[in-house]
Amino acid sequence: MPAKGKHRRPKSLRLTRSIAVVGTGGAALALPLMGATGAHAATPAAAVAQHTEKSASVAPAGTSKTYAVKAGDYLAKIADVQHVSGGWKKIYSDNRSAIGSDPSLIHPGLKLTLGAKAAAPQASAPAKPSAAKPAAAKPAAAKAGTASTVTKTAATSSSSGYTLPVDGATIGTNYKVAGSMWSSGYHTGTDFVVPTGTTIKSIAAGTVVSAGWGGAYGNQVVIQHADGRYSQYAHMSSLSVSAGQTVTEGQQIGLSGATGNVTGPHLHFEVRTTPDYGSDIDPVAYLRSHGVAVG
Questions:
Q1: What domain range includes position 228?
Q2: Residue 38 in contact with residue 2, Cβ under 8 Å?
Q3: Contact status, residue 209 vs residue 253, Cβ threshold 8 Å
Q4: Within 138-233, where are the H helices?
Q5: Quick one: 110 and 153 in the same domain?
Q6: H-type helices in 40-107, by residue range?
């Protein structure tokens, strides 16, 4: 996708299943279901917010209630758990004065009005001070002629047992686009621009090699396939699989997001010859070689 940033070489650590939500500026911990014009990873981020489930509660018709944002919350999740008619957009519309111009920047302690339009903006709790975070790369447009839309059709999967990692996405930054922001000197994968909360699928049957925090990649999953190749899915808001698990073609492995250091939600997708950074091959060419229509 259009935005760029530097992926540093992830450390070779055993990764456990985790769910994290990271925002901008170190204070925000939550990510909404929202569109993006493009984003890309930059430098490694620290701090992972533990996901905490909330019990659902529905406000009677015509009434409203106040909800205090907790660590791990994002607008789409609150809308789903609290059964808010109109989803995250309704919450944002009703609480824009309290949230501000960026719906991804909500933090623990912020008071939101659910169920009816807020009469007045709710005061937000001051953000907890945190260490300075490395600046993310400024968005940059993909090379002319490289942007395309991945259309959800029957052609997205093939009889060979492969499918797209995400449906209905726009390709932002393509593979091997050169730039000094990447430690390898070029973009090691393909970015699919999708809103936070979009289903991410395994492109083929395989075994999950790792699932967890990947530094600049945020929440990521790496899967080994029968042909010896590995697929990587990065910046996810939540994971649905764990290391050692067997998955099938098209099985949900998590939800898209903007974890790690990015400028907006997207899926960074790689195909590798090993499970490690630096062994990348062209992911779009790989999918097409297996009969999957891309773009």
A1: 148-289
A2: yes
A3: no
A4: none
A5: no
A6: 75-81, 87-94, 96-99
Q: Do strands 238-239 and 252-255 pair parallel, antiparallel, or not at all (unpaired)?
A: antiparallel
Residues in contact with 135: Cβ distance below 8 Å, sequence separation at least 6, in sequence order = 42
Sequence-distant (≥ 6) Cβ neighbours of residue 129 within 8 angstroms: none
pTM > 0.90: yes or no: no
Among the listed residues 281, 288, 211, 287, the one whose alpha carbon sits nearest the alpha carbon of residue 252: 211
At 60, which CATH number? 3.10.350.10
Number of structural domains the chain divides into = 2
Q: Are strands 238-239 and 280-281 parallel, antiparallel or unpaired?
A: unpaired
Q: Quick one: 74 and 125 in the same domain?
A: yes
241 touches 208 (CB < 8 A):
yes
DSSP secondary-structure letter at 111? E
Each of the 295 residues of the chain gets a pLDDT tens digit; together they read: 444 444 544 444 444 443 333 333 333 333 333 333 344 444 333 333 333 333 334 445 557 889 988 876 777 788 888 888 888 788 888 888 888 766 666 777 888 898 765 444 444 444 444 343 333 433 433 333 344 444 343 334 456 799 999 998 889 889 988 876 666 778 899 999 999 999 999 999 999 999 999 988 999 999 999 999 999 999 999 999 999 999 999 999 999 999 987 878 999 999 999 999 989 999 999 999 999 998 7
H helix count then E strand count, the chain:
4, 14
Is 216:235 a contact under the CB 8 Å cutoff? no
Residue 173 lies in a domain: yes
